[in-house]
């Protein structure tokens, strides 16, 4: 990664500020953690996951007892089975939700860290602009207002840098809370960004068994169907059968609504991943162009056709392109996290199969 070009004749105060807020100084506070390690820690330490696991263990024991009890009636057996099935899906849902939260927290922290680098370089560029304006003023090639404007711009950049550092600390705290990792945690570099290869139609077929809301509605339908079956005889009052059929019709409508809502949410999340992937391609192209321009200007500086100030401005343009590319990468990861929750299966390539 391109590092800011050192600037000569920088004031002691400004130099101290740059050193204190530099990524190197921040990195000393804690060793960076990988996204995979952060997700694993969250899955192990997350309260929602642990609660869902405890509920599953309880449901497994209750179901085993009901199925083995010769005196248990059909409704009790079905209820225990439905509760177990729902608990299994709820555990998967808790893991996926925890995965999404961790991915979002991690990528937010990584963006904040990279923004500190960007704002550090911006401060250096603006410091140089003040120096240039002061020199021009001395030779009467600029006005005092030009120097003042350059100084105002520098002040704003320094404030942005201070805010960027504060955002790192806030994002680090959120990631620590989500994962149970120690305070001051820092994000490492992103690995390869996964490509979505599963078709939308394939994801839609799994909604009936992967989503808590749909599975719960399916269980209600099964229970209502059993009630109708048990009431459909000569010795049960007709009113009881009518009520059971009404309850079944209501349960079927609720199931239909849950399925449609799930399908709509899934389609929207899938489209978001597609959009994010296309924007990443654009960001990568722009970064490549900026890198080429920087390399050309570095050669031009050696040949004496541009100044060091010109190269520093080109370097800033490259850094902005790199930051935009990082934003696009994290947008893809966040979109995949949302899609995973909507599909009820892990599509991020992180944390394994749930």
Q: Provide the β-strand percentage band.
A: under 5%
Low-confidence stretches: 1-28
- How many E-type strands? 2
Shape: elongated
Cα radius of gyration in angstroms = 29 Å
- Say what oligomer this is: single chain
- Class per helix and strand makeup: mainly alpha
Number of H- or I-type helical stretches: 11
Task: Characterize the main sheet.
Answer: 2 strands, parallel
| SSE order, one letter for each helix or strand | HHEHHHHEHHHHH
Q: What is the first-to-last residue Cα distance?
A: 35 Å
Instruction: Give the integer mean of the pLDDT values.
Output: 92
Topology:
Layout: H1 12-20, H2 23-27, E1 32-33, H3 35-45, H4 47-68, H5 74-138, H6 144-179, E2 186-187, H7 200-205, H8 207-210, H9 212-231, H10 238-303, H11 308-343
Parallel strand pairs: 1-2
Kindly describe this structure.
Helices cover 79% and strands 1% of the residues. The protein has 11 helices and 2 strands; from the N terminus they run ααβααααβααααα. Helix 3 (35-45) packs antiparallel against helix 5 (74-138), helix 5 packs antiparallel against helix 11 and helix 10 (238-303) runs antiparallel to helix 11 (308-343). The longest helix is centred in the C-terminal third of the chain and has 66 residues, at 238-303.
